[in-house]
Design a protein that fits this description.
Number of strands: 15
CATH class: Mainly Beta
Distance between the termini: 33 Å
Helix content: 10-25%
Structural class: alpha+beta
Largest sheet: 8 strands, antiparallel
Length: 196
């Protein structure tokens, strides 16, 4: 066997880090919810956002770094370097602000991907979801990711509160309709220079 094969491995482009944020830390994030103003979630490319409840029905707000939230950005950033090296090996330069998302009864987000199709110097390379709700706080609402590129061969996950899900932004994914309860999460996109 050639020597280089010893170092060759396929990168999965998907990882769940369980319980990265403690229950106390999640409670601190949830306390920030009272300071947020939520709007209906939209979809589409940055310059042409659309609203269609058939494609996406959720409530969103934005969490920016300030004296109350900087620690969330710092803690996530510390994990990101490790995960990128272990799972993706992408050339990255930082991550976006956090989208605070609530899915209530019948809310969902149909199949989509997060990469930016329009030309830009920067692109979304890794998508990340920090779970703020325990799986028993809502029914259904699973995150499904087509890791193989085929939605019929997707993986379905319902991570524990405090876990962080990472996946390549080019992977098609969806949030199944919530049938009861409320599913809360923070979502961000890890950015890097476009290579092609």
């Amino acid at each position: 066997m050639p020597q280089y094969l010893k170092y060759r491995r396929e990168l999965p482009c998907f990882k769940i880090v369980d319980n990265y944020f403690s229950n106390e830390e999640i409670d601190k994030i949830l306390d920030l919810e009272d300071l947020q103003t939520f709007a209906k979630g939209t979809f589409g490319q940055p310059q042409r956002q659309q609203s269609d409840k058939g494609a996406r029905d959720s409530e969103v707000s934005w969490l920016y770094p300030d004296s109350q939230s900087q620690w969330v950005f710092d803690k996530f950033g510390a994990l990101l370097g490790y995960v990128n090296h272990d799972v993706f090996m992408y050339d990255i330069d930082g991550f976006d602000n956090f989208q605070y998302t609530r899915y209530k009864k019948n809310h969902h987000y149909d199949w989509h991907f997060d990469t930016i199709l329009e030309y830009s110097e920067w692109d979304r390379k890794i998508s990340a979801v920090i779970m703020l709700s325990d799986p028993d706080e809502y029914k259904s609402g699973e995150l499904e990711i087509a890791v193989s590129g085929h939605p019929e061969k997707c993986i379905s996950v319902k991570p524990k509160k405090g876990s962080v899900v990472f996946f390549a932004s080019w992977m098609s994914h969806r949030v199944k309709p919530v049938t009861s309860g409320v599913r809360k999460s923070l979502v961000t996109w890890v950015m890097g220079k476009r290579t092609c």
